Amino acid sequence: MVEGDHHPAGASSAPGPEGGRSTSVSRRRFIGYLLGFSVVATAAGVLTPIAGYLWPPSRVAAGAGGRVQVGTTQDFLVGQGKVVPVNDKPVIVVNTAQGGLKGFSAICTHLGCVVEWDQRRQIILCPCHDGRFNPVNGSVISGPPPSPLPEVALAVEGDAVYVGDAPV
Amino acid sequence: MAARQPMPKRVWQWVDGRYELTTLLNALMHVVIPINARTFYFGGITLFFFGVQAITGTLLAIYYQPTPDTAHDSILFIMNQVHFGWLIRSIHAWSANFMILFCVLHLLRVFFQGAYKKPREVTWMMGILLLGITLAFGFTGYLLPWDQRAYWATTVGSEIAGAVPGVGQQLLVFLRAGTDITARTLSRFFGMHVLMLPLSLAAVLVVHITMVHQQGLADPDRDEGAGKEPVEGAGKEPVGKEPAAAGSAAVEPGHKPKRKLLPFFPNYVLDEIIAWYVMLGLLIILVSLVPTGLEEPANPLRTPEHAKPEWYFLFLYQGLKVVPRIVGIAIPMVGGLLLLLLPFLDRNPNASPRRRPIAITIGVLVIIGIVVFTVWGWRS
Predict the structure, then answer these.
(1) What ipTM was estimated for this complex?
(2) pLDDT per residue rounded down to tens, chain B (380 residues)
(3) Which residues, including other chains, have CB under 8 Å from residue A27's CB and lie 6 or more apart?
(4) Residues spanned by the domain of A104
(5) Are the C-beta atoms of B329 and B111 separated by less than 8 Å?
(6) Overall number of domains in chain B
(7) Which residue among A42, A53, A60 places its CB closest to the CB of B85?
(8) Among B59, B77, B81, beta carbon nearest to A50
(9) Do B59 and A60 touch (CB under 8 A)?
(10) What is the dihedral sign for C-alpha B219, B223, B224, B225?
């Protein structure tokens, strides 16, 4: 060793063979990097399942084509309407002289209240803010709702009435 | 002009200037322990598993529904639909068993090293209480999946409570919230498992750990005997002295050299963290190789063959099968009481096992008995 050279073993900036600085990493710093990596990797390994677990899983689609029998034709005579559950979602089934038997999502497009059938006016009515919908095509007649009620698939087989919860 | 200090240091100074945390941290971090202390980290590992249970249990409670109609389906939902639900549930089930196992191992370590003797009597009693609460955790949690195994294991297990002389029937009704296991039992067990028992355990744990911190770890090789007052430095450095360097001996003028001391932080803490890492790895391996299953939903009208409680109650269950009921329940009750009062019943001041032949012999015989009855109950 050259006299006056007091670099301790493992120094990170020992002079190189040409007199310039080398870029070797000391043992202490290397172990530090390994330790830091291990801690971060463990934390990531623990937090990732926790975060994934907390994210709500997507809903599983219902069986039998996603449709549900909501009643018979006798339950929905002309001029009548009723809210029925279809795969935990509210659907309003109406029967009008002009439009016949139709199904619409019963969730008001304004702020999410469940609509109802107004027997006197023969319209679909939202009780929260007096939004009014056309029972033939679900369009907005008056009030604050910004968009029509989405129509859902409805099929009559024999006298059984089937409704799906997905918009057509 | 002085160089501006780095942000973390400035944040620390802002907090410390208001709350004087440095003083508190110094008191915590200058704890020293005997260099001969051999804990095998069992107590710390038990604490680690409790932490795992608290986290995974909280996660499970987000999706679990504690009614007979929905409990089983909610477990299926967690296992099949929730992301990583199978992992969280299996970790919770395995960690429960490990928490009980290491709690018992910690008890045995303390017993065989005589670390329950003066001045650590109350620490021991708090530890027995913690063991009881941990077993109650296992018992109440076992019912929650509401499958055949859970339902009938709880039926059999709570019948043991009914065998207590005098108050057995009242105890049974209190446990089950009625004479049979119903929806009321499930909601009672759920409330105990997620609220009452965690709060109780946390409270007793704070007392237990504070006592250990105050008194320090027992030196298993102390030759003064446990009847002496704790040696200076057993818990902290003496006031006004520099903290002991690793492995140094604290020597008072005119006295014999005391036991060598090791700083609790960071030396012992680092060893504990390594032990926790190993346990975490073990958990992951076991969960991957042996995930927790779920049997068919509970049917109160059909008892499956070989209904029995979980492994940690098997010795009681098997004992009740081979001896008269009153004997089968009296022995564990009396045994539990003796265990609780052990520091006051054991008058031998020595800590070394060689100087405690009676205690060690009794301890070994009890362990053998429990293991034999557990294996017998498992195989029957």
Answers:
(1) 0.80
(2) 567 889 999 999 999 999 989 888 888 777 888 888 889 999 999 999 999 999 999 999 999 999 999 999 999 999 999 999 999 999 999 999 999 999 999 999 999 999 999 899 999 999 999 999 999 999 999 999 999 999 999 998 888 888 888 888 899 999 999 989 999 999 999 999 999 999 999 999 999 999 998 888 888 877 554 444 444 444 444 444 444 444 444 444 444 445 678 888 888 999 999 999 999 999 999 999 999 999 999 999 888 887 888 899 999 889 888 988 888 888 888 999 999 999 999 988 888 888 999 999 999 999 999 999 999 999 98
(3) A10
(4) 64-167
(5) no
(6) 1
(7) A53
(8) B59
(9) no
(10) positive
Which helix (DSSP H) or strand (DSSP E) does residue B318 occupy?
Answer: helix B314-322
CATH number at residue B151: 1.20.810.10
The total number of residues written for chain A in this structure? 168
Q: What angle do CA B2, B5, B9 make, to 5 degrees?
A: 145
Indicate if A70 and A140 belong to the same structural domain. yes
Total count of residues recorded for chain B: 380
Q: Report residue A39 as tokens.
A: 């801690």
Q: Which token pair is B232?
A: 């200076």
User: Please, which residues bridge with residue A160 across strands?
Assistant: A72, A157
Tell me, yes or no, whether A72 and A152 share the same domain: yes
Q: Which residues of B65-74 are buried (b: 16+ CB within 10 A; e: fewer)?
A: ebebeebbeb
3-state helix, strand, coil in chain B (%, to 5): 65, 5, 30
Give the amino acid at B267.
N
Test mutation, B78, B80, B83, chain A, max A CBs within 10 A: B83
- The DSSP line for A109-139 is TTT-PBPEEETTTTEEEETTTTEEE-TTT--
DSSP B5-22: PPHHHHHHHHHHHHH-HH
A60 touches chain B (CB under 8 A): yes
DSSP SS3 for B175: helix
B371: enclosing H helix or E strand: helix B357-379
Together in a domain, A49 and A72: no
What single-letter amino acid sits at B320? L
